[in-house]
Amino acid sequence: MTIADIRTQAEAKMNQSITAFQNNLSKIRTGRANPALLDSIHVEYYGSQVPLSQVANVALIDARTISVQPWEKGMGAKIEKAIRESDLGLNPASMGDLIRVPMPPMSEERRKEMTKLARNEGENAKIATRNLRRDANEAVKKLVKEKLASEDDQKRAEAEVQKITDRFIAEIDKMVAAKEAEIMAV
């Protein structure tokens, strides 16, 4: 493995951690409805727990309402129960086959909790990025120890990995700030 391989691998893994962070951010509730909010809900389906998206169509009716359309007739009550029992604080209402999930307005206190949650997710993503930086630097040191690279190469590689890390951490900070602004917008 060369220094270029280590750098490329570290950058690819940092991209993966950013993608995972974006996914986690999308699940944090804002004032608007978002179908991704229901991704974490599992429903009992013929004896096993399956994600809601595998037993129903989840879509937006308007900015404050999510619709859940079960694919089978008997699933409506189970889906409604699963949404109600989730820790999202949602109260679904059945209208025939369609289940409407209105988003209650968030209180100031709840908005602050959500911003804390977003910051915490951001900090976890930064920690993952820094761990990847450390792993890359250790791999470079191992190459130097095995005399496959010079100490000058090590210094250059560590500086490049640090630049990549700084770029990803700045991107995480931007994403957290945007999410906080979205949460605090009334």
UniProtKB/TrEMBL annotation:
Q: Which Gene Ontology cellular-component terms appear in the entry?
A: cytosol
From which domain of life does this come?
Bacteria
User: InterPro entries per the record?
Assistant: Ribosome_recyc_fac, Ribosome_recyc_fac_dom, RRF_sf
Its main subcellular localisation, reduced to a broad class, is: cytoplasm
Q: Does this UniProt record's set of keywords contain Thylakoid?
A: no
Q: Which cellular compartments is it found in?
A: Cytoplasm
Keyword annotations from UniProtKB, A to Z: Cytoplasm, Protein biosynthesis
Q: What does this protein do?
A: Responsible for the release of ribosomes from messenger RNA at the termination of protein biosynthesis. May increase the efficiency of translation by recycling ribosomes from one round of translation to another.
Regarding protein family, the annotation reads:
Belongs to the RRF family.
Report the HAMAP family cross-referenced here.
RRF
Name of protein: Ribosome-recycling factor
The scientific name of the source species is: Xenophilus arseniciresistens
Q: Could you tell me the gene encoding this protein?
A: frr
